[in-house]
């Protein structure tokens, strides 16, 4: 291929080869530009260590699972915006007239997760266009650098829906033919005056809606002018203009909307749901329901950290989920069995002997064999192993279903407890239990249940029952719910009998103060001691309570053990501990928290960590300089010893001193080759951004970093 | 490796006085090596870790298929780490992108403009014959074409943080391009502060998948354009251009320049000296009958300024002062040469 370096240009084009015949050109003008998109076969060699069929299965599963996940997440997100969209729609249609002089404005506060806003606005756009008015202009600050652009864009977008309709009709006429690239018709409508004339000819007198996506990023003055202009036209030309403004933070509002602007607006504010709520919803729907692939504890933690402490963006969350699904199927050879239960049998049948060995190498299976020596025949008997595989994977499936359900039960049982033991939201409960939270939490939970009153206990159990009824459609926990029903009935009976008791003997006995007698301090103390010594008679309620707690401890706790204790969990829980070359967690960590700077610093201060050579390996501190290291590393290490300014000459001398052999005498003569190497290294250090030329002192450079 | 940033260190570094010696490169036998000299010297230089570097390169090349798969799945690739990644990415291009639409952008090329990238896409790949009234329109056209039609193209950007791309606007545009379904970007970055260029929105558009490709390869191509980098070279150029321009000056103009230069040399140890005050220069010049009015002097000075031989600024007390932006030793050299 031709060279890509030149002193006169920085851009080089390599055109695709002209297409083979047999493919109908979509567009006359650029036949040759179409590339064959069916490159999947090329990707096949990606899947190392497996034959073709396994590769195809995995690729297929990846595609299926990702598209399902994607579809579901989109549904969830659009569902969660439903209420807000409805409210905005109602607001817009209620204020359709031009009666009032101020412009009806919907302020929608959407939170700081800017990348997610696009999805909302596109939904809003479709909703408004289908339900309220076809005249919607959606603007963002990037396309409106000046007022002129802003006005042009607005008008162009408001009027464009007309021409689209025309085009569609035209297209229908000459259907099937090659469509020539539609060149945007240059609209004649360019000013507000034109717009008014245009609007007077429009049949549907629906409002003109202008959406400003990111209010904060528009210039204050520009915004003010624009608003005044729109108001002027609303009043004089009777144009039913309305605004919808998206805001990220409320603070910006006062700065952005000057008093002169805001008096022209009749605002109403709307609030979207915080993205954390959406995230909880997503995790509940995507990973707690019957999804095939689940996130292992380490990856779940990683993704949550990325979301909660970094960007709060659902968009990037989903992008990471995409990467995880992809990586799981590509990197893990055993992922071909990561499928729904119905497919399992067939897939296990298809496995060949080498595949089976891969499954035998899984750490969880090895551990299992170590513990159950009697099952050692599994290592050799393929038929038995296949059966075992099927049984274990089915058990795993039931386990994860029960696990999510148990999480829900725990959530409703512990709801409102002090300290929010397992977390406030269901997502927190799930993640905490998945990670295998401390057993202290569990004990504390039981203790708190133990001190609760009969009524409280019953409410909790009933809440758990409701959750069970809602979620357990398959009835896999039916015996569990039967016991719960029994307990709740028992408690109810107790409560009622107590009530009737209370009615029959309204005078409750006071143990401490005998009536009619005044006690002094010592007497009271003695009395109290005596009561404490008395064995408390266990009531019927206490018995039931302890029964409930023992039952919970045995039934629920067993269902809540961490997935990593189960055999073959690696297949369904992405990012579990596996052989190091199958482990995707370090790779994912790099994607969630990319650290280019650390990579550079590490390479510079400890080159052996990348090069793997023995000559440069550090024996002491990181600041150690060895003459065998690459020039750039030596120069870097020398520069970290300096302050703000570095004397080039002295720097070069130290570089020379390191390069010199010990036996050479101590003269300061610098060979040209050393000088050239030094110059190169310094130039590269500047490219990396560690130093900068400085005019403060002759032959000095400024250091741009500090510390080591 | 753990890099903990200690904010205290910053203030320590800034508050301490700078203690460096006053020695300059003039103490060397040959203080100013030219670019050619460096190149010819380095040509024969044999690097000790070549074997390890080849191994590293081989290791990274095994990721190529993964890169390609990710690109096809709608992600874009960002390669970081110490060492030039030009060769690695070029290898990727020749191996996997052969026969596809590819645009190679050298971000380190100082004359690169975003327009050039646009034109490569519209003229080179899309073969669009019409013109565009504005870059915005061109960008929208590109986005639309690569979204709606089946056309695909790969954009390779060496040094996405290069001198002509390291601005918010340029990055914004590159990320928008990367977001188009038909455009796939493979980019490399080197500067340690590059991540500061991207905000949430840009990152979510770009959908980068990061790869650490520390190659230790020399940045020979990348630094060949940066003449300011070779401190040695840039000042030689300054002196050379001064001699050149000076030769073409009139006698009076030469004398005026020498006056300023001498005054600057006399005061070279005075840190409070900011430049030759204009009114003093005027009276000096009148005394020597070099100029006859304020205006003629200004005309002369403007010529110096146009050739960047002179800098004019206002001092603290509001007077205009004149300063020659050259190192003192070079200025001295120059004045001596002139007097000879």
Automatic annotation (TrEMBL), chain B:
Location of the Origin recognition complex subunit 2 winged-helix domain: 269-329
Upper taxonomic lineage: Eukaryota, Metazoa, Ecdysozoa, Arthropoda, Crustacea
Source organism per UniProt: Daphnia pulex
Recorded family membership: Belongs to the ORC2 family.
Domain of life: Eukaryota
Record has RNA-binding as a keyword: no
Protein name as catalogued: Origin recognition complex subunit 2
Domain Origin recognition complex subunit 2 RecA-like: 55-213
Keywords for the protein's UniProt record, in alphabetical order: DNA replication, Nucleus
Pfam families linked to this entry: RecA-like_ORC2, WHD_ORC2
Recorded GO MF terms: DNA replication origin binding
Signal peptide range in chain numbering: none
Oligomeric form and interacting partners: Component of the origin recognition complex (ORC).
Keyword Protein biosynthesis applies: no
GO cellular component, one term: nuclear origin of replication recognition complex
Main subcellular location of this protein, as a coarse class: nucleus
GO BP terms in the entry: DNA replication
Subcellular location: Nucleus
């Amino acid at each position: 291929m031709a060279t890509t370096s030149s002193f006169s240009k920085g851009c080089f084009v390599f055109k695709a080869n002209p297409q083979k015949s047999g493919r109908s050109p979509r567009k006359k003008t650029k036949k040759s530009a179409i590339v064959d998109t069916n490159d999947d076969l090329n990707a096949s060699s990606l899947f190392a260590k497996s034959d073709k069929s396994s590769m195809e299965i995995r690729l297929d599963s990846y595609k299926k699972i990702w598209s399902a996940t994607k579809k579901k997440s989109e549904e969830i997100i659009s569902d969660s915006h439903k209420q807000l969209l409805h409210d905005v729609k109602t607001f817009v249609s209620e204020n359709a007239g031009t009666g009032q002089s101020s412009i009806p404005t919907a302020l929608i506060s959407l939170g700081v997760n800017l990348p997610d806003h696009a999805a909302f606005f596109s939904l809003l756009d479709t909703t408004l266009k289908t339900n309220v008015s076809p005249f919607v202009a959606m603007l963002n600050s990037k396309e409106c650098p000046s007022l002129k652009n802003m006005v042009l864009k607005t008008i162009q977008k408001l009027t464009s829906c007309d021409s689209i309709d025309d085009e569609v009709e035209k297209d229908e006429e000459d259907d099937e033919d090659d469509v020539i690239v539609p060149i945007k018709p240059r609209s004649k409508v360019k000013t507000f005056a034109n717009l008014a004339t245009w609007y007077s000819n429009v049949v549907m007198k629906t409002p003109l809606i202008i959406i400003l996506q990111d209010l904060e990023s528009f210039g204050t003055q520009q915004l003010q002018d624009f608003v005044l202009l729109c108001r002027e036209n609303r009043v004089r030309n009777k144009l039913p203009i309305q605004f919808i403004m998206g805001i990220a933070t409320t603070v910006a509002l006062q700065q952005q909307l000057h008093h002169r602007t805001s008096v022209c607006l009749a605002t109403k504010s709307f609030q979207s749901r915080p993205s954390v709520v959406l995230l909880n919803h997503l995790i509940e729907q995507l990973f707690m329901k019957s999804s095939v692939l689940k996130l292992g504890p380490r990856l779940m933690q990683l993704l949550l950290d990325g979301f909660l402490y970094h960007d709060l963006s659902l968009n990037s969350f989903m992008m990471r989920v995409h990467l995880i699904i992809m990586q799981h199927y590509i990197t893990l050879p055993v992922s071909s069995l990561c499928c729904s239960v119905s497919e399992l049998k067939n897939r296990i049948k298809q496995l060949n002997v080498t595949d089976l060995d891969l499954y035998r190498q899984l750490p969880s299976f090895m551990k299992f064999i170590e513990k159950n020596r009697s099952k050692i025949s599994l290592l050799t008997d393929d038929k038995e192993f296949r059966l075992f595989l099927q049984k274990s994977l089915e058990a795993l499936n039931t386990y994860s279903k029960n696990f999510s359900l148990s999480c829900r039960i725990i959530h409703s049982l512990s709801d409102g407890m002090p300290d929010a033991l397992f977390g406030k939201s269901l997502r927190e409960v799930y993640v905490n239990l998945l990670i295998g939270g401390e057993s202290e939490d569990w004990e504390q939970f039981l203790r708190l249940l133990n001190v609760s009153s009969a009524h409280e206990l019953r409410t909790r159990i009933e809440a758990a029952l409701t959750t069970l009824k809602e979620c357990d459609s398959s009835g896999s926990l039916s015996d569990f719910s039967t016991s719960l029903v029994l307990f709740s009935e028992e408690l109810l009976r107790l409560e009622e009998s107590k009530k009737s008791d209370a009615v029959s003997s309204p005078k409750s006995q006071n143990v401490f103060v005998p009536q009619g007698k005044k006690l002094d301090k010592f007497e009271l103390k003695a009395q109290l001691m005596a009561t404490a010594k008395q064995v408390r008679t266990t009531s019927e309620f206490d018995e039931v309570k302890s029964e409930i707690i023992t039952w919970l401890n045995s039934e629920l706790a067993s269902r809540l053990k961490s997935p990593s204790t189960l055999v073959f969990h690696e297949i369904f829980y992405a990012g579990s501990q596996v052989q190091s070359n199958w482990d995707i967690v370090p790779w994912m960590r790099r994607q969630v928290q990319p650290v280019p700077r650390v990579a550079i610093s590490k390479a510079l201060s400890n080159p052996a960590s990348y090069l793997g050579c023995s000559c440069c390996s550090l024996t002491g501190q990181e600041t150690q300089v060895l003459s065998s290291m690459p020039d750039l590393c030596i120069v870097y290490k020398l520069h970290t010893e300096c302050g703000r300014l570095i004397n080039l000459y002295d720097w070069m001398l130290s570089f020379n001193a390191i390069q010199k052999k010990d036996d050479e005498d101590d003269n300061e003569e610098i060979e040209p080759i050393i000088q050239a190497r030094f110059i190169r290294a310094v130039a590269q250090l500047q490219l990396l951004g560690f130093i900068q030329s400085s005019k403060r002192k002759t032959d000095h450079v400024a250091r741009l970093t500090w510390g080591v | 490796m753990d890099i903990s940033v200690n904010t205290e260190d910053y203030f320590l570094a800034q508050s301490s006085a700078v203690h460096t010696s006053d020695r300059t490169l003039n103490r060397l036998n040959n203080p100013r090596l030219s670019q050619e000299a460096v190149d010819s010297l380095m040509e024969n230089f044999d690097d000790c870790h070549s074997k390890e570097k080849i191994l590293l390169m081989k290791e990274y090349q095994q990721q190529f298929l993964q890169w390609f798969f990710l690109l096809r799945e709608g992600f874009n690739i960002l390669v970081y780490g110490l060492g030039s990644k030009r060769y690695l990415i070029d290898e990727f291009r020749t191996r996997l992108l052969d026969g596809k639409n590819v645009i190679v952008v050298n971000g380190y090329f100082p004359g690169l403009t975003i327009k050039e990238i646009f034109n490569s896409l519209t003229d080179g790949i899309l073969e669009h014959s019409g013109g565009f009234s504005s870059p915005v329109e061109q960008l929208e056209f590109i986005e639309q074409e690569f979204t709606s039609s089946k056309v695909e193209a790969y954009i390779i950007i060496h040094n996405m943080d290069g001198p002509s791309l390291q601005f918010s606007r340029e990055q914004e545009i590159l990320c928008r391009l990367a977001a188009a379904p038909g455009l796939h970007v493979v980019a490399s970055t080197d500067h340690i502060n590059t991540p500061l260029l991207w905000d949430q929105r840009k990152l979510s558009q770009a959908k980068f998948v990061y790869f650490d490709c520390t190659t230790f390869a020399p940045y020979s191509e990348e630094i060949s354009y940066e003449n300011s980098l070779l401190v040695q070279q840039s000042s030689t150029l300054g002196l050379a251009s001064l001699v050149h321009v000076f030769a073409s000056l009139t006698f009076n103009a030469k004398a005026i320049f020498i006056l300023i230069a001498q005054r600057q040399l006399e005061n070279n140890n005075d840190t409070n000296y900011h430049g030759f005050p204009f009114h003093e220069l005027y009276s000096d010049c009148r005394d020597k009958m070099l100029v006859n009015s304020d205006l003629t002097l200004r005309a002369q000075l403007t010529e110096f300024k146009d050739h960047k031989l002179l800098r004019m600024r206002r001092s603290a007390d509001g007077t205009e002062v004149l300063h020659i932006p050259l190192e003192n030793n070079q200025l001295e050299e120059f004045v001596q040469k002139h007097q000879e």
